[in-house]
Amino acid sequence: TAGGKVEYMINDKVGIGAEFTYSNAYGNYQDSIGAPVYKAGVKKIRVLGRFNFHFATTTSIDPYFTIGMGYKNTTYYDNQPGYVYNWPNLVPVAVRIGVGLHYYFTDFLGINAELGIGGPMMQAGLSFKF
User: Fold this and answer.
1) Which residues does residue 23 pair with via DSSP β-bridges, in sequence order?
2) Which pLDDT score, from 0 to 100, does residue 113 have?
3) Cβ burial, residue 42 (10 Å; 0-12/13-18/19+)
4) Which terminus has fewer CB within 10 Å in the chain: N or C?
5) Residue 54: C-alpha distances to residues 10, 34, 75 (Å)
6) Is the dihedral of CA 56, 57, 60, 63 positive or negative?
């Protein structure tokens, strides 16, 4: 899974932003010993608008609650002859609710972690403040 987030702070407590995530999980399998190897998996693309509420913020620690909603495309695939399919999801809506934390080492560089439902259970990465 790979992705990114941006946020614009409206004031000290409220931020709006966007999130993009992409994942492609797959596995190879065989019907029987000596049979050809086939590939099956699931691919997801999500683009969300986000609303973040920051609380108990200090100069280096910035915890927040987040809620987001947007577009999701989930595709299931299998390339075995006779079973070849590429099924898209029926409802292309993504919703995310979570809690996160930014920890800044300097005035502009830090790390972040977020736990939530609706997408990756845990996200982590670098944070940059402009």
Assistant:
1) 44
2) 98
3) middle
4) C
5) 11, 57, 34
6) positive
What pTM was estimated for this model as a whole? 0.83
Q: How far apart are CA 88 and CA 90, in angstroms?
A: 7
CB 42 within 8 A of CB 76: yes
Distance CA 5, CA 123 (A): 10
Q: Which of 47, 62, 50, 60 is nearest to 15 (CA)?
A: 50
Q: Do the Cβ atoms of 74 and 88 come closer than 8 Å?
A: yes
Strand pairing partners for 4? 20
Tokens encoding 76: 């299931």
Band of residue 83 on the pLDDT scale cut at 50, 70, 90? confident
The per-residue pLDDT for 3 is 94
Spatial separation of the C-alpha atoms in residues 41 and 32, rounded to whole Å: 19
What is the token pair recorded at 87?
Answer: 């099924």
For the chain, the distance separating the N- and C-terminal CA atoms, rounded to the nearest angstrom, is 26
